[in-house]
Amino acid sequence: MQTVTQDKFKPVVKTGNNERVVRQSLSYWADAWRRLKKNKLAMFGLIVLAALTILALIGPFLQPYDYQTQDYAARNFAPSGSHWFGTDDLGRDQWVRVWWGVRISLFIGIIAAVLDFTIGVLYGGISAYFGGRVDDIMQRIIEIIYGLPFMIIVILLMMVMGPGIFSIIIALAATGWVGMARLVRGQMLSLKEQEYVLAARTLGASSWRIILRHLVPNALGIIIINVTFTVPGAIFAESFLSFIGLGIKPPMASLGSLVSDGVAVMRNFPWRLLCPSIVFSLIMLSFNLLGDGLRDALDPRLRK
Amino acid sequence: MLRFILRRLIYGIITLWVLITLTFILMHNLPGDPFANSQKLSPEAKATLMKTYGLDQPIWVQYGSYLKKIATFDFGVSFNYPTRSVNDVLKQTFPTSAELGMYAIIIAVIIGLTLGIVAALNHNKGWDYVAMLTAIIGVSAPAFVIGPLLSYFIGVKLGWLPPALWKSPEYKILPTITLAFGTLATMARMMRTSMLDVVSQDYVKTAKSKGLSRFAVVVKHTIRNAMLPIITILGVALVNITTGAFVVEQIFAVPGMGKFFVQSISTNDYTMIMGMTIFYAALLIVAIMVTDVMYGVVDPRIRLAKGGK
C-alpha cells in the first residue's frame, strides 16, 4: 500500500496566462468564409464569376468594334484573329456582342437581387413585426400572388410595357419578392420564439438590440442564400424573355437573343449558337456553384 | 380534411379571378393597335370592327361580358384571323402540348427519382457524382440552351435523330429530353437530399435493428418517406414544364400551344393571348391546387398546420 505524501503535490501557480483561449474565436462570417474557402466547387464558381465580370467590363474594349455597327463586308465570318467569336449576318462582331450580353445579364441579376432583398425583407419584416390582422391580410395577398404562374405574369407585364431593360426589371421586381417575403416572415416568427431572444429579454435588452443583435444576424445567412439563387433566376428570366422576343430589343444584344439568332443559323454557322450558349451556361453554373457553397457555409444547421 | 380542400379551392378561385382581371386590365393598356396589321382601314370600317368586338362599349360593360364569356368557356375569336376561334386553336394545339408535357414529366419523374435514389444509396461514390453533375448541368443549361445544342449535335452533326418537327416517335425524343432535363435534375437533387435526410432518422435505424432486409428498409421505410417532399415540387415542375414548352416548341418546331402563344405575342393578337393566358393559368392553378391537396392527404402534418385553424 502506497502512502500519499505531501510532497507529491505542488501548487499550481497562477501565471495570468492560463485563462487565455488558445484558438482565436471566429465570428460567424469569418467561419463562413473559412468554410467557403475549403469548398473547391464554390471557389471555382467564384473565380469563374470574377473572370466573367472582368471580361464583361473590359471585353468590349479589347476589340475595335462596337455592338451595333454593321459591316456588310464582314458578314458571317467564322471565329478568327480579327473576330474572336466571328460575326453575325449583319457583320457585327460577336465577341463584343456576347460581352455586352453578359453585362446586361449581370446588371439584371444584381438589380433583381437588390430589389428582391429590399421589398422582400420590408414586406416580410412588417408582416411578422405587426402580426395579427395586418399579418393576416398581408399573408392572404401573398398566398394569391404565389399561386399565379410567374412567367405568364412577367410575359403579360412585358407586353404592356414593351421590350427593354427597364421593363424587365419592373416585371421581375413586381413578381420576384414573394418568396423572399415569405422566407423573412417565417424566419422572424420562428427566431422571435428562440430561447436566446427570451434570455436577452430577461437580461433587459431593448427591442432594438434584440432585433439588430439577434434577429437580423441570425436571419441574414438564410436571406443571403436566397439572394444568391435569385440572381441566376433573374438572369434566366431575362434570357428566356429575350429568347422568345420580349426582352432586350435590337440592336442591343442579350445572351437570350444571341442564342435565339444562333438557333436559326446553326446549320451553317454553329459558332453563333455555341459562343453565347457556353458563356451563358458558365454564368449560370458559377452562380449556382457559389450559391450551393454559400448555403453549406452559412446554414448553421449544416455546421458540425 | 374537407375544410382543408375547401380552403384550397376558394384560394384557387380567387387566384384565377385575380388573374383574369389582371389579364383584362393589362390587355386594355397594351401599346399598339389590334388592327395595325390590317392597314388601310377606313375610319368607318374600323368603327364597325370596334363595334363587332364590343370595343366601343364602356370598359365596365366589356369587363362584365368578358367575365360572362369566360365562365362559359367562350374565349372569342382571334383578332388577326376572324375565322379562327380561340377555342379551336386550343383544341388543335393543346393535345400536342399535353402529349409533349406528359412525356417530359414522366421521364423527369422516373429518371430523376431513380437517379436521386441511386445517388443517395451510394453517397459520395460514383453514382452520386453522376447525379450531382446532372443536377448542376440541369440548372446551368436551361431548355433554350440545351435544346439547340442537342438539335445541333445529335440532330444535325451526328444525324441520329431528326433535329426538328413532330411526326413519328423518333421525332419526339429530343424535344422530350430537352423539356424534361431541368425538372429531371431538380427531382434527382431533391430526392437525393430527402433520402439522405430520411436515412438518418430513428425509424430507419429501428427497421434495420429489427433485422429487416436491406430491400425492405430501403423500399418500405426510406423511399416511401423520402417521396413526400417530391409531391410538393410536382406543382412547380408542371409550371416549369409548361413555360419551358414555349421555347422547346419554338426550337423543335412542334405545333403546340406554346409555339402559338409566342406567335400571338409577336402579332399582338389580343383575344388569342388573353384566352391562352387564362387557359394556361387555370391549368397551372388547378395543378398546384391538386398537388397541395394531395400533399395534405399524404402527410397529415401539413393538413393540421395549414388548414387546421
Automatic annotation (TrEMBL), chain A:
GO cellular component: plasma membrane
Transmembrane domains' residue ranges: 41-62, 104-129, 141-159, 165-184, 222-248, 269-290
Pfam families: BPD_transp_1, OppC_N
Protein's GO biological process: transmembrane transport
Topology relative to the membrane: Multi-pass membrane protein
Protein localization: Cell membrane
Domain of life: Bacteria
Keyword annotations: Cell membrane, Membrane, Transmembrane, Transmembrane helix, Transport
Domain ABC transmembrane type-1, first and last residues per copy: 102-291
InterPro entries, per database record: BP-dependent_transpt_permease, MetI-like, MetI-like_sf, OppC_N
Family: Belongs to the binding-protein-dependent transport system permease family.
Identification of the protein by name: Diguanylate cyclase
Organism whose genome encodes this protein: Tumebacillus flagellatus
From TrEMBL, chain B:
GO BP annotations listed: transmembrane transport
GO CC annotations, alphabetized: plasma membrane
Annotated TM spans: 9-27, 100-122, 129-153, 173-191, 230-253, 273-298
Domain of life: Bacteria
Pfam families noted in UniProt: BPD_transp_1 (PF00528), BPD_transp_1_N (PF19300)
Domain ABC transmembrane type-1 positions: 94-295
Protein name: Peptide ABC transporter permease
Organism of this sequence: Tumebacillus flagellatus
